[in-house]
Amino acid sequence: MWLYFLPLLAYLLGSVSSAVVIARLMGLPDPRETGSKNPGATNILRYGGKSAAILTLAGDILKGVIAVLVAQALTADAMIITLTGFAAFIGHLFPVFFGFRGGKGVATALGVWLALNPWVGLALIATWVLVALLFRYSSLSALMASLTAPLYVAWLSPSAPYLATMIVMSAILIFRHRSNIRNLIAGTENKIGR
Fold first, then answer.
1. Which of 30, 99, 114, 139 is the most exposed place for a label (fewest CB within 10 A)?
2. 3-class secondary-structure state, position 131
3. Of residues 44 and 158, which shows the higher confidence score?
4. Mean pLDDT of the chain
5. What is the C-alpha separation between 87 and 90, in angstroms, rounded?
6. Chain segment 29-41, per-residue pLDDT in tens
7. pLDDT digits (tens, 9 = 90+) for 47-93
8. What is the pLDDT of residues 104-118, one digit of tens each?
9. Nearest Cα to Cα of residue 114 among 104, 105, 129, 125
């Protein structure tokens, strides 16, 4: 029964906002009050530079990876493992340590899937990079990766808990990008590098 505490611990891990921590350590403004006001790597990149953005991205990915790897080391129960990964993702979105004001979840979701099934993770990275190279929009890249993610899971890791988790995560990711969708439609979304 104690294994059911893993999602709670993963939620707490996910609640450590890499963007806020990195910003404080590097003497940068709080990302929740600056730029797009999203505590994520893209916003940090725009005003804090590449080093801060890379550290933020790595921290957000590692939250998902660590949560899943710890769960996999302790149990073979796919439901507990996927719930643990999902809890880390939810912690990133609604961090208890930072007033429940979290990021959009793209990097942490990627970390979860890199640990659950590296092939799915690599397919998501390839989709993001391809769309980013073609269109230069980080948000559009994240949206396309979110839309295709359930297809990758159905193809590369066809288990009911994995597929159900991915569908829910993708729906949440798309919802979290609703302002970006409006900006993309209006032609006001910032491109990568601006």
1. 99
2. helix
3. 44
4. 95
5. 5
6. 999 999 889 999 9
7. 999 999 999 999 999 999 999 999 999 999 999 999 999 999 999 99
8. 999 999 999 999 999
9. 125
Contact at 8 Å (CB) between 126 and 133? no
d(CA 103, CA 177): 10
Q: Decide if 102 contacts 92 (C-beta within 8 A).
A: yes
**Helix 138-156 vs helix 178-186: crossing angle, to nearest 10:** 120
CA distance 70 to 72: 5
pLDDT of 192:
82
Angle at 105 between CA 21 and CA 1, to 5 degrees: 90
Closest to 6 (Cα-Cα) out of 75, 63, 61? 75
Q: How far from 167 is each of 87, 148, 170, 172, 177, CA to CA, in Å?
A: 15, 10, 5, 9, 16
49 near 38, Cβ under 8 Å? Answer: no
For residue 149, with 0-12 CB atoms within 10 Å meaning exposed, 13-18 middle and 19 or more buried, which class applies? buried
Q: Residue-wise over 37-65: b if at least 16 C-beta within 10 A, else e?
A: ebbbbbbbbbebeeebbebbbbbbbbbbb
Residue type, 2: W
47, 34 in Cβ contact below 8 A?
Answer: yes
